[in-house]
Records
---
Amino acid sequence: MRKNHLALSIAAMIGGFAGNASADAFSVGSTAGANSSSATGFAVTPAGVGHMLVLPYFTTQAGNSTLINLVNTDTTNAKAVKVRFRGASNSDDIFDFQVYMSPGDVWTANVSATADGRSQLSTSDKSCTLPSSVSQAFVTDRLPASYTQDQRYAETREGYVEIFNMADIPPKALTTAGVTTTAANALFTAVKHVSGVAPCTATTLGTLTQNPTDTLTAHTLGFQAPSTGLFGNYTIINVPATTTYSSELTAIVAESAPGVAGLGNIVFFPQTGTAATTVDAFTADPSLRTIGGAAANGVQNGAGTSVSNTLPIITAAFFDLPDLSTPYLSTTAPGNTAPLIQAQTLTQALAVKTITNEYITDSSISAKTDWVFSMPTRRYSVALDYATTPFTRVFSNFAAAVGAGNDFFTRTSTSLVNGQICVTADSQKLYDREETTANTGFVISPGTASAVSWCGETSVVSFNAGGATQPSALGAKLARKDIDGGSAYVQGWAVFGTAGPTVKQSGGPQAGGSGLPILGSAYLKATNPAVGAGVSGTFGGSWNHRYTK
C-alpha cells in the first residue's frame, strides 16, 4: 500500500454479534462467552481514556509540527490500533496504518512537512506497525485528480486523526470458540516488548494479511473483543516561532451501561490493498458504499435522488476498513444498515448545541486567537465525488436504517463552496470583557455575511487577523474564516449556536435541533515586548471548547 519510504525528518522530540458476519468480509463481534461484545452505546468521557480517540486538529502549516503520544493503559492485553489521518477539506484519507501496542506501551510520532510541502510522519518507536515502516510522506491518491501536485500536497497539511482499538490481543491463545487456553498467544508474543523492543515476528504478523470471515477465525489469529484503555496527548510545536500548544485527544468509550466500559465488536481488517468485499456492511462512508439511493440504505446525491455517478465512487481496499462507522456495538444487527446506525449513534454522542470559548487579540502583546471546529463523523453522512464537474455532494441514505429525517447533515443544512462542504452556525455572539455583546455588525471573511459558515471538515476561525489570508495563531490555510469584531471586540468570549437539524434521539426529538458533532479548542499566540534581546518572548496557550448538549 505505502511504498515510498522517507528518512526521518525529525528525531523523537517528545517522547460481537452472536453469530458470524457475512462471508468475504471479516468478523464483527464475538461469540458468547468471556470475550463477548457487551457495548450498547457511546459516550465522550472526561476521564480521557476510551476505546476510540480523536485528535481534532493536526497541522504542518507555517513551520508547525504535530507530535502525537498514544498510551495503552491496559497492562494485561496488547491492542491492535487503527490510525487514520483525514484531510481538513473533506475528510479524505491521506494516511492510515495499524499500530500493535504492547501492554502498558506508549507509541510516539511526529508529523511535519517535507521540503516539497507534503506532510510526513516520522517515528523511531519500537512498537510493531503494519506496514512495518510508517515513517513516510502522506498519500495523495484519494485527492482530486484535477488538482496540481502542489494543491494535493497542500491538502495533506491540516486535518484530524481517528484512532481506535480494533481488538485486544490477550497473552494466552483462544480456541475457535473464544475459550482461553494455557498456550501462549503467538500474536501477543510477537508484539510484546522484550528489553524495550517488540520482536515484530514476521511470520506471525504475516498471518494478518488474511481477512477473517468470522469471529472464530479472528480468535485463531490472536484477537479478542476490544476493551477500553487508550489515551493520547498531542503537541503542536513551531520551533522557529518558539510556540507550543498541547492538549488531550478526545476519548470515546463504548459502554455496556451508563458510565461502565464494555467490550466492542472485533473490527480487524488486514492492512492491505486487496479490494474489500461486502463493504456496505462495514462502512457508512458514501464514497465507498456500492448501493444507489433508489435502494434502501444507499447513496443519494444533492437532489435527494439516486446518484447518477458510478458506484462506488472509490473502490474500497481492506486498508479503508475499519473506520469509525464500522459496527462496534453488540445491539446492532449485521447488515447494510448497521454502519449507518453506528454512524448516527456515534454522532449523537458527539453532538453539541453551543460552543463557547475565549478570544484575545490585544495588539500590545501581538495576541492572535484561532478556534478549531472539527466534525469527525461528518464523512459518514456526506462526501464529495471528485470525478464530476463540478464536484458533487453524495449523502448516505439514513432513512432505511433510522427513519426519515434523521440526518445530522442534510441537503439543506450543507452547501458546496470552492470544493469544500460547508455548514453554517445557527447563531453567533461576541462578548467583550466588560459585558458588551454583539451578534451582528461584525464581518466574516471571506465574504461580508455576519453568519459563520464552516467550510471544510476541520475548520479554523481566526479573530481580528485582518482577513482569512493573514497570519494567525495556527497559520491555517485550508479551511479558514476570520471574524472582524472591529475595535469594540478585541478580547472577551464568544458563543456559537450549533443546533443543526432535529434528529430522532432515543428519548424522542429534541426541540431546536439535535446539535452537530463538533470538537476543538481555542489557540492563543502572544509576544511579550519587554523581553531582552536574544530572549524569546513568544508564548502559546490552548483551551478546549465548552459545550452544551
---
Amino acid sequence: MSANINILVGGEAGQGLATIGESMARAMTRAGYEVAVCQDYMSRIRGGHNTFAIRTGPDPVLAPAEDIDILVALNQETVDLHLSRLTGRGVLVAGDGLAIPAGTPCLRVPFRTLAPKPLYDNVAALGVLGSAVCGDVAILERLVSEAFAKKGAEVLEANLTVLRAAYAWVKEQDFSFACMPPAPAENAGRLMLHGNEAIALGALAAGCNFVSFYPMTPGTSVVLTLIDKGRETGLVSEQAEDEIAAVNMALGAACAGARALVSTSGGGFALMCEGVSLGGMLELPVVLVVAQRPGPATGLPTRTEQADLNLVLYAGHGEFPRAIFAPGSPEDCFYLTHRAFDLAERYQTPCFVLTDQFLADSYRSVAPFDLDALPEPPELLLSPGEPAAYERYRLTEDGVSPRAIPGFSQALVRADSDEHTEDGRLTEDLAVRVAMQDKRLRKGQGLLEETVPPDYYGPDGPDLLLVCWGSALGAALEARQTLEERGKKVAVLHFRQVWPLDGRQFLPFLESAREIVAVEGNSTGQLAALLRQETGVLLDKRILRYDGLPFTARFILDGLEKLDS
C-alpha cells in the first residue's frame, strides 16, 4: 500500500483555502516529497464551493485521487459534500462550530483560541495541517516569512505566532495520523510549478520577448508568469483591448523579429482565427497557447476539458501547415513550449500548445529543467547577402524562405495578406498562386518529419491499450498500474503532439493490441476520430469525460467495467 496521502481543503472563495493548500504543497515539495495538486473552483470572486486537493508522499504521484485521507473543512458545505469520501484511515479537520456526524474521526480546531481574529484562520489551519502530517515546522515558518515579509515585522510576527501555536496545539491532542516515511533523498531541490508556469518558463528559455493577450481563464497565468519572470529578460507585454488585437499585435511583433506568444482559452481563440490565417499567409513564427475549458460559449469557465482539438487544428481559413503540442505534465509544458518556438521559427508558421484548466492549475513537484539539452534558438537574418536581390517568399525546395527582419539592412521586405510573388508583390497570377501554396505546404513535410512520437508505456502486444493525449496521461498510467497489479497485460499510448500525426510512429502499437480504448476529456472522441481519419484505424471503444472534472484512475477503471458489462 502506498504511503502517499490525499489532502482536500474545502471552503468558499475568499476564505484562504488556496493559501493553505499552496503553502502546504510547497512545504511538502521543499521537504522532498512528491506533490500533485488539483484545484476545483467556481467562477466567483467570493462564495461558491471551492476545493484544493494535494496528493503527496514519498511515492510517485501520477494523478488526482478521489478518496480523501485528511479533509480540512473551512465551512459546513465541505463536510456535507466530501465526508463520504474519507478513507478508513482518514480524519476530518474542522472548526468547533461545524456540525459533524457522530463517530467521525475528527480533529476539532479551536480557531478563536489559536488565532486572534478570522483573518489568521488560514495560517492556523496551515499549522494544524503541517503538524498533523509531521511536517517540518521550520519549512512552514520560512514559507510564512516569505509570504508576509513585505507587510512589515509586526504582521509577520503575528502570523508566525499563530502558526507556531497551531502546530504545537496538535501535538497536545489525543490524535494520531501516521507520519509519512522520509522523502527520497534524490528529490531534494525540486521545483513546485503548475502547467502554465512551466509553459511560461519554456517560452522564456526559447527567447520569447513579446507577449500580447486579453485576459481569459485559464490561460491568463501564462502571461502573468511571463510578465513576472520576464522583467529580468526584457520581455515586452501588452494587454490588448480584445483577442483580435492581441493576435495581430503578436504577428506584428513577429514580423519585426520578436519571438512572440499569445495565450488564451477557447472562446478567445475563436476570435483569433482570422489572425491565425494571416500568420499562415505571412509565414510568421508565432506561438499560441490555448488553455481548454468546457464550452460551448462561456460553458464552465473554471473547469477542465479537452474539446478544442478540432478548433485549433482547423482554425483559420485556407490551408497552411502547423504543429500542435498537447503536454501531459509540467515537464512537457516546458520542453514542448520550447519546441513550439523552435519549430515556429525554423518553419515560419504558427505553432500551438494545447493545454487545459486541470494542467494549467495543477502544481507538481518537478526536477529542475535541463537547459543544456535545449537547442539554441535560430539566429535572426538581419542582413541578406545581396540586399537588392532579396525575395521574402523565394521558392525553395523545403518551402522555407529566407526571412529577413525589416529595417536592419537595405533589403526591402514586403509582406501582405494577399497572394504574392516571390518578392512579396500582390498577384492574381494563378500559376504563381499554385506555386506559392505548394511552397507553403512543403513546410508541412518538414514538420511531419520532426513530429514528436507518442510515448508508449507497457509490454508489447498488450491485451488492453489505453490511448490518450494531453493531461489524461497520469490517470491512464495509474489505471494501467492498478490493472497490472490485478494480473492484466495493459499498456498506455500517450500523444504529446496531436498534429501532424505520423502513423509510422504508432501504428504498430495499435495493430498489436487485442483491445484499444480511447480516453479523452471530450464528448465526441476528437483524437480517436482524427486517428481514424489519418490511419483508418477505428477506435470505437471510448471512455469520455466532459463534466468539467479531470480524469482519475477510478473514473477510467469504472469506464472499463461499463464497457465490459
---
Amino acid sequence: MSKIISIVMSFVLLLSSQFPGLTSFLDSVSTVLTGAPYFSLSSSDSFLNDIKDSSIVKLDSNTGYVHDILLVFLKDDVSLLQRHTIFKSVNGFCIGYLKPANLFVLKASFNGVNEMTSLCKTLMQNVGVVYASGSFAFKNKDAYTPNDPFDGLNTGTDRWDESNPGGGTWWLEAIDARNAWGYSSYFNHMNIGIIDSGFDTNHPDLSGKFVFPNALLASENIPTAHGTHVAGIIAAKGDNGTGICGICQNSTLTCVDWEPEQGQYWIADLRIIFGVGYTIADGAKVVNLSIGSSNSIDKGQPAYPALWMNTEGALVSAYTAILISKGYDFVIVQAAGNGDSQGNAVDSFNNGSFCCITEQNALSGIMGVPAKAVLDRIIIAGAAQNSGYDRFIQTSFSNVGSGVSICAPGSWVYSCSLANNNYYQYMSGTSMAAPIVTAVASLVWAVNPKLTGPQVKAIVCNEANTRYNVPPTNDKYWPDAPFQSYRMVNAQLAVEAAIKTAYSVGTVSGKAINSHGNGFECEIKAVCGDKEFNFSCGSDGTFSFLLPPGDAVINFINSDASYTVVNTSVQADKTVDLGQIVLH
C-alpha cells in the first residue's frame, strides 16, 4: 500500500510543477500530515514563546531538557511521504522549522530522558535523517561581575598610550586597535551577528547599525545594558565626538534577542540554535555569543552531568557541521564563561553551547564534515585584566582549560549602555572579551573576504599575531582546574597578517625619541601612492607598520601639531628601519 501511495505522491509532485494550484494543495496536505508545508517551508519559531520554566524537566538543579520536544535534521531531498513516515515513527508533529539547517522541531510525547534517547535512535534509523536529539536547557543566571568600583575617569580626556594601557580606553590600547584602524583603506564592510539580550537601537553611538533577520525578531527586541554594551564594543561609531569607538566600525550588526521573558530562569538551547541560524543565513560571517551556563554551578560542584554536556556537544557540533555542509562559512566566538556561582574559574567546557564541543564528543563525518572543520570555526574567549606597566593577567573569574582559544580584555571595559546609565558604563566579564575577539576576527575578514572561517581563526589565534602572554591569576579556588597561560588577541598584528594574504607590502619600523633620547609618543601619517595610513606609537616610541611598495612620505606629528617628515622607499617583503626619529 505504501508503494502505491508513494507512486501517487510522486505523480502528484510531478504534476505540481505544471499546475501551480497543486503546490498550494500539497502544502495544505503536508501541513495536515506533518505540521509544516512541503514547498513553501520557511523558518518559524513561534513555539519558542511557549517554552516556559514549567516545560523543563530537570536532570539536576542546573540542567535539563524541554518536555515533549525532539529535534530532527533532515536531508534536503526527503520526500513528503518520507517526512510523514519519519515523524510518524515517533508520533511527532512539526511545531517549528529552521531553514538554514533543515531542522524540524517536533512535538512528541515521551516519559524521561531514556525514552527521549530511544525516540532519537528511532528517528535516526530513517534514511532521510541526518541527526536527531532532545532539546536541552540550562539555568539562566546573570553573569558574575567582580565588585570593582567605577574608576571615575572622564574617558573623553583619557590619554591613549599603547605602551602602557590605562583608563577607559585601556582595552583598545591593549590590543593595538588604533594601529589596526590605520589600515582602514583595506577594510570591506562586514556583517556581524550578535545573539544576546536586547539592544538599544536608538543609542547615539549605535543608531543605524542594527538589523534583525525578520520583523518578528525586531518586535521581540527588548533593550538591555548587556546586549548594548556588547554591540558597542564591536561597532560603536567612531569620530562622532561622543562616547567610544567600536573596534569594527564599518559594519552592520545582525542581532537576535535570545533572552526569554522577564522572570524566566531556564534557557532552552533552541533559542541560541535558532539565533545563530538566523544571523548566518542573513549573511553574518562572525557571530558573537556572550552567553553561557557555568555561573549556575554551585560552589563545590565542579561540573555539569556528563550526559548533558556530551549530548549538548554532540548536538551543537552536528548543527554546525550541517551549516558548513550547506555552504555557510562563518566563525563563532563564545565567551569562556565567568566561573561558578561564586565567580571562581572552572573548565570552560562547563559553559555550554559551543564551549561544549570537544574532539571527543564532536560528531565526526556528519554530512561529510569532519570534527576538525567544526572546531576550526569556533573561538572561545577568556578575559584578561590590566596589571599596569604593560602587563596583564587572567581575571579570577575567567574560565580556563584547553577549550579556551585566546584572551581579550574583560575587566573594566567601558562601552555603550542604556539611557538610565547615561548611555555608557563599565562592565566586566568574558562577555566583554568575546566581542573584542569577534571584532578583531571581523577586521581580519574585512581585509580579505576570500579567507575561510578556519583561516580567520588561525590568524586571530596564531601566537605570532599576538603581543602579550596572559598568565592565570594566583587566586585559584579550584586548584585542580586546568589553568594555563593564553595569548592576548592583537588587532594590529592580526590585520597585518590578513593584509599579507591579499596584498604586496613592506614593513617600516623605528623609534621616535625626544632630544634626550627617550621614547616619544606621536601620531604617524603615511602617504604611499593613492593610499593614506594613520598610525601611532606609545610612550616607548617604537613603531612598526606595513605600507604598499613605492615611495612614501611619512609625517611624525607631535601633540602640538609640529612634525617631522621622512621620505623613504618601500619594497615588497622587505623591512625599512628608519632608526631613531628625533622629535621636539
---
Amino acid sequence: MLASQWYRSLHTAIPTQSDASGDAPLFDKILVANRGEIACRVFRTAKRMGIKTVAVYSDADADALHVAMADEAVNIGPAPSNESYLLGDVVLEAARKTGAQAIHPGYGFLSENPQFAQDCEDAGIEFIGPGPDAMKVMGLKTPSMQVAQEAGVSTAPRYDGNVESVEHALELAPSIGFPIIMKASAGGGGKGMRVCWDMEELAEGFTLARDEAIASFNDDKMLMQHFVCPNNGRHVEIQVLGDKHGNYLALPERECSIQRRHQKVIEEAPSPIITPEMRAEMGAQAVALCKAVNYESAGTVEFLVDPDTLKWYFLEMNTRLQVEHPITEHITGIDLVEQMIRVAAGEELAIKQEEIEINGWAVESRVYAEDSVNYLPSIGTLATYIEPTASDPSAEWPDVRVDTGVVEGSEISVYYDPMICKLITYGEDRQTALDLMAKALDSYVIKGVDHNIPLLRDVIRQPRFVSGDIDTEFLKDVYPNKFEGYMLDSSEKDQLVSAAVLLHVRQQIDNANFAGLAQVPVIATEIVATIGEEPIAVTAGFDAADPTGDVVVTFPDGRALSIGAAWSPGQALFRGTTGNDEDVIVQFLGRSGTNMTLRFCGTVFEVAVRSKRDEELFAHMPEPVDDFDANAIATPMPGVCVNVNVQVGDEVSAGQTVAVIEAMKMQNNMHAPRAGVVKAVYAVSGQTLDADEVIIELEEEEADADDEAEAQ
C-alpha cells in the first residue's frame, strides 16, 4: 500500500481535460528526473493518465518509494547529487535506454537548467517544462528584472549591471536608497543574499554575498536593488500556465510569507490580504511577463507585497513546478502536473481564464526532519511512520493530502533535502482548513528522527497567524529567542493531565490482567501528575473492572473533567474525547517506570504519573548527574567540515563561531560554549564527521579562589 495518495479536490471543480475527453495517452512513457515526494507526485498523475513511468535513482535511493512506484527504474550513480541526479547526460541516457519520450524534471536538480532542456530538445526527448530560452532569461536576476520592467510588471529601484566591487556598490547606493539587498544573479533559496541598512553593512554584505554566490553557484555576478517592505513584506506568488499556441492563464495567488532563512515553511491559498482587484492586476502582470518570454508550461511569478500600501514588486520567476503547487490544485481543481504533460505534448490549454474560480481555502505545511528548536537537520531511519490519513482507519480524511516520498523504514540521509512530506488540508474557509491542519499534525506519528511538527503546530495557533497578520519576518518576531515548544493554556493542560491519568489507569489495569489476578485490581485514585517540574494532585474516578471505561479527573479546585478513548497499551496514538466534546489527540512515545513521553499539540512533554504515596517517596530519590562537557565542541549532526576558524592556543569568547559544518545542503555554525583557550583541534576542512563527534576541545577552566576554598 502506498504511503501517500493523490487526493483530487472533492468540491466543485473544473474537470481536467483527461476527465472530459478520455483520449489516448499523450506519451507512452515519461521519465521523472528527480526523487522523493515530487517524483511520486508526478507518477500518480502519469499513471492516472495511462502513461508508463521511469524512475532514476542513486545508490542511496535504491529502496526509495519513488523507485517502487515506477514501472521501470534506472540507477544513475552514487549518492551525492553531483554524481547522480545532477548529471544530465546520464539522465538522458536512462531515457534513451528505456524508451521514454519525455522527461519531467520536478523541482530542484535539473529543473531550471536551460542546458539540460536544450539537450533534451536536441535528443528528440520532450522536456516537460519551459523552453531553454525562457528558462535562461528568467533564471538570471538582472535580465529577468529588465524583462519584467519592459513588460509592465511592478519592479523596485535597482542597478541592472553587475556590481563589480565593494567600491562600486558604495558608489551606487545613494541612487538606489537604503535598505539595499545584494543578490547573487544566479542565486536561489536565499543563498548569496544580504540585506544592508547602511554603508558599513553594505561593504560587508557585498563581500559575504559574493563569496557565498561563488561557493554555491560558481558565479560571482551580483545584483543590487532597493529592499522594499523591509519590516513586514508579504511573499505572494501567482501560478501561471502557458502553452505552445500563445495561450496563458493566471491562477489564484499563494501566500508564502512564513519563511525561515528564505525557505518557505507554511503556505496557503488564497492570500488573506489580496483583494479581487489586486488578484486581477497581479495576474495580468504575470501573464504579460509570460508573453514577453514565450513561456510554455507551469511557472510561478513571485511578488513582495507591502501590507500598508498594498503595492507589490516583482521578485523573480520560478521556471518550474513549485513545491507548494498542491494548494493551488485544491482551490481550483486543476491538476498542474497533468497540464504540464499536455502542454509538452503540444495540446492547447482547455481551460479559459474566466472559468477559473476560487473554491475554499488550502494550507500546506512542510514537514522536515530537523530539530525545530535549533533548526538543525536530523537524519536516521523512520522507525515508526503513520500518516494522518492512516492513523485512524475508522475516520475519513477527504480533505487531507500527504505528498511524500517515504514509508516506514525509509532513511533520511545527509545527501538530500530533509523534507519528510508536504501536508495539505482543505476547507470551505481559512479557519476550517487551519483546524483540520492542527488535527492532522497531531495525528502524524513520526519516530526515529526529530521533526518540525512542534513548530508547525505552534505557528498555526498563534493569534497573529490566525488573524492573517503575517509577513516574512513572522518567525523572527514571534520566536526572537528561537522556538522552545508549545505553551499549553489552562484548558490544554487539563486535557493533557487527564489523558495521562487515563493512560496510567489503563496501563495499571493491563498489568493486573497480564499478571492473571483473579480479583479486580486495586489502583490508587489519589494521583500526582507532574508536567515538567509542576506537580498537579488530582483524584481519578474509574471502574477498575472496566479496562475501556472513562476516567473522571477531579482537580484541586473542584473542577472535574471526564475523558474516554478507545486506547489500549501498545498503541501509538491516543484519540480521546472529554465530557465537553473536546477532541484530545496524544501520541504515546514511550514509558520508563512512571515517566511517560507524550506528544501533545505537536510538542513532546515528559509527564510523570504516580500515586500520592509514590510521589512522596520519589521526593527522596537522588538527583541525576549532568554529564555535559563544557570543554568539548561536538557536531550536532553528521556532516562535512567546511572550515575550522581556530587553532591550538587561540583564545575564544562565548558564542564565537569556531567551525562551520555542512549537512543536507545547509551550513551550520559551531559556537564556543564558553570563553577559553583552544587545547586541541580534531577536524580539518573536507572531513566527514559523525554525529556528536568532538571537533574542538578547550582547556580546563581554572577554578577561582572561592571555588578552591569551598572545595577545601
